[in-house]
């Protein structure tokens, strides 16, 4: 990597070369550039209002800590706006403990309220124990993703938030787009947006402020900020198709800088064409837990086997 002096300030030594822009940035200019991009994304998608109480999903990984740091900086300008960090302990031995400790440390250092919820408290067992109980099962990520989304929603409601901010980055978004494409889930693809809002108010608005920031830049931002990241990798990550897609897309981006942005822009354009023809989803409270769902029983309750219990209850 050719790192000459910064092409922006032309004073400091280069820290990061942004290939798709042909720029070399020093640490200071790189930090300012990334934060400016996030502010621009927030403004473009009208993600926040001055009186919002935002639950920030903080796992303890690089993405969520970066999001927490940037939002904390922004929030200093808007004293009426409030943020609370919410962390989900999935119950993955040797992995989640470190992340929860890191999330707790940064929230304490920044003076941010912190709510921790666990799969065990919410569902009666951690992910490890749940998977052991399944003789035939889907991938761990299939269960975890559904349980985590519900857990974050419940935690956000508990702290009184009206919005949820998640740290999905550009790579995450494009990977999800490709997964939906390969799995034939056109409806889920069309419903994607950096801001997911339900005008009926059945679920909390979700926003993705890092949706236009490449994963690699988030890593470099973390190093520039001297952030302490989680060192352990999830033991279940090799089960997911997403992991293979990540490898392929990383190779494409290395060979053709900017291809990830091109895919993202194409995705938004295709969505704008298809969305007007998409019928609104019919949401209703889950008959078991009361959370919004398009079915009688929500996905999380079905995975727990509650569907069969409900069907046995006499009318």
**CATH superfamily caption of the largest domain:** HUPs
Counting H and I runs of at least 4 residues, what is the number of helices? Answer: 13
Helix content: 40-55%
CATH class of the largest domain: Alpha Beta
* N- and C-termini, Cα separation: 68 Å
Q: Can you list the strand order of the major beta sheet?
A: 5-4-3-6-8-7
Give the tally of β-strands.
10
What is the alpha-carbon Rg in Å? 20 Å
The CATH architecture of the largest domain can be given as: 3-Layer(aba) Sandwich
Looking at the chains present, what oligomeric state does this protein adopt? single chain
State the CATH topology of the largest domain.
Answer: Rossmann fold
Given the C-alpha coordinates, what overall shape results? globular
Order of helices and strands: EEHEHEHEHHHEHHEEHHHEEHH
Kindly estimate the percentage of residues that lie in beta strands according to DSSP: 5-15%
Number of domains: 3
Low-pLDDT sequence parts: 307-315
Structural class computed from helices and strand pairing: alpha/beta
């Amino acid at each position: 990597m050719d790192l000459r002096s910064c092409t922006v300030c032309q004073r400091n030594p280069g820290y990061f070369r942004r290939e798709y822009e042909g720029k070399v940035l020093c640490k200071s200019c790189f930090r300012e550039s990334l934060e400016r991009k996030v502010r621009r994304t927030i403004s473009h998608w009208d993600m926040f209002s001055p009186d919002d109480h935002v639950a920030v999903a903080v796992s303890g990984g690089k993405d969520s800590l970066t999001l927490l740091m940037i939002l904390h900086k922004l929030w200093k300008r808007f004293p009426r706006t409030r943020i609370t960090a919410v962390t989900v302990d999935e119950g993955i031995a040797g992995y989640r403990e470190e992340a929860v400790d890191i999330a707790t440390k940064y929230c304490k250092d920044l003076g941010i309220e912190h709510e921790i919820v666990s799969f065990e408290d919410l569902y009666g067992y951690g992910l490890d124990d749940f998977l052991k109980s399944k003789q035939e099962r889907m991938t761990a990520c299939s269960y975890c993703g559904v349980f985590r989304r519900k857990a974050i929603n419940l935690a956000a409601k508990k702290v009184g938030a009206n919005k949820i901010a998640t740290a999905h980055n550009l790579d995450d978004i494009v990977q999800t787009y490709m997964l939906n494409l390969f799995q034939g889930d056109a409806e889920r693809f069309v419903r994607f947006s950096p801001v997911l809002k339900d005008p009926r108010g059945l679920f909390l608005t979700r926003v993705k402020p890092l949706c236009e920031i490449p994963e690699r830049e988030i890593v470099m931002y973390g190093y520039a900020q001297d952030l302490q990241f989680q060192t352990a990798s999830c033991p279940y990550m090799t089960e997911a198709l997403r992991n293979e897609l990540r490898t392929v897309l990383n190779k494409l981006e290395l060979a053709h800088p900017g291809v990830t942005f091109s895919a993202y822009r194409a995705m938004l354009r295709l969505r704008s064409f298809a969305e007007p023809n998409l019928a609104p989803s019919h949401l209703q409270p889950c008959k078991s837990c009361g959370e919004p769902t398009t079915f009688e029983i929500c996905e999380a309750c079905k995975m727990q086997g509650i569907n069969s219990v409900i069907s046995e209850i006499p009318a």
